Amino acid sequence: MNEEHPRHADALEHTESADVVVKVDRVPVDGTNVRVSSIGDVGKRPFLLVAGLGIASTYYERLAPNLEEFGPVRALDLPGFAGVPKFRGTVSIERYADAVERVIEELGLDNPVLVGHSMGTQVVTEVAARHPEITDLVLISPVVDSKARTVSESAVRFLRSALHEPSAVRFHAVTAYALCGWHWFRKVLPKMIAFPIEERAPHVQARVLIVRGEHDAMVPRDWVRRLARVFPHAVLREVVGGAHSVMHAQADVVARLAVAHVKGELTDRGVSSLQRVRDDSTKTDLARLGPGDAWLVVRARFKELFGMAKGDDEVLEAGKSAHALAMADDADAPVDPDVRHDIVEAVAPELNRRDDH
Fold first, then answer.
1. Distinct helix (H) and strand (E) counts, the chain
2. C or N terminus of the chain, fewer CB within 10 Å?
């Protein structure tokens, strides 16, 4: 191991002195609460991350440590997900947006960069539509295609996309759905399927970055092009090799895209130009670790799940910190200029073709 660039995993058992620490807090919301996992405490403008249906903020564990460009990163576990108590009564995307608004107000966040994945894109779009002062929005795998708003079609597309997900993502999904429970999942799913995100998009004044994975059958190219056209300002990027959970499997490139978007550095060739980018630096969760470190990662994951299931935020905080520490890429490692170039330019002109996927 190069001594100039030590692995974060080398300090897994000493997270109190680590450079990646996750803090867990709760914000009271409408008879329940939102769990907020935070990385970093320097800077004024945070990224605020909202996960998808049934999913825990754990899905952002590889993305979040790479977003501390402007301030702390806050990842939310919404009511009913990841062991957080459910809403009482009716549920809707609008009600989840109310919860996110409450978090922004309670934490005193000034113009946060809103990031949503899957159903989370509906929630943050609704929030941005209500708040013209929000200037930047990142939509990762936005749902649901207006031409396929049925449970059966969405299920088929989701399974097709899942075939291209790495094993770590599948593990996250299985455990998250188990914590969510079938009853709540079934209650929220129709609300996600029916939500007309394209009707709220024209009311969003923020600059919008839309990111999809190449193999994301849930979010075909034709759909993101149609969606982008109804936002006042939107740019599109497609990650080569990615699927629905691209922000986990290709975390490095998605993080760089998000930061470049907020800085105004992404080239815009119009919404019909779906520029493709590559991620050649993100490695699989355990492939880059030795057997001892890999075991510590697995142990940290189960500690985190135990904390979620028991509602023990101290245990959850320790597990998240240990796991985030291991999964974070070496912040001091040099960035390959060719990889950075891929962030803002198309890989090849012919890859910008208009065929649907």
1. 12, 9
2. N
User: Which residue, among 32, 34, 20, 22, has the nearest Cα to 104 in the 3D structure?
Assistant: 34
Inter-CA distances, 339 with 143, 257, 343, 348, Å: 28, 12, 7, 14
Q: What is the DSSP string of 247-269?
A: HHHTHHHHHHHHHHHHTT-S---
- Answer whether 161's CB lies under 8 Å from 244's CB: yes
What string of DSSP letters covers 168-233?
Answer: HHHHHHHHHHHHH-HHHHHHHHHHHHH--HHHHGGG--SEEEEEEETT-TTS-HHHHHHHHHHSSS
Asked if 96 and 123 touch (Cβ cutoff 8 Å), the reply is yes
At 129, which helix (H) or strand (E)? helix 119-130
Pairing of strands 136-140, 22-29: unpaired
| CB burial of residue 244 (10 Å; 0-12, 13-18, 19+) | buried
Structure tokens at 300: 């940290």
SS3 76: strand
User: Could you report how far apart the first and last alpha carbons of the chain are, in Å?
Assistant: 41
Which pTM value belongs to this model?
Answer: 0.79
- The answer to whether residues 70 and 105 touch, using CB atoms and an 8 Å cutoff, is no
Cβ–Cβ < 8 Å for 111, 187: no
Report pLDDT for 79: 95
Is residue 74 within 8 A of residue 89, CB to CB? The reply is no
List, for residues 83-134, the tens digit of each pLDDT value. Answer: 899 999 999 999 999 999 999 999 999 999 999 999 999 999 999 999 999 9
Could you check whether the bond before residue 339 is cis, i.e. omega within 30 degrees of 0? Answer: no
Average pLDDT value over all residues in the chain? 80
- Running DSSP on this structure, what letter comes out for residue 69? T
Contact present, 204 and 125 (Cβ < 8 Å)? yes
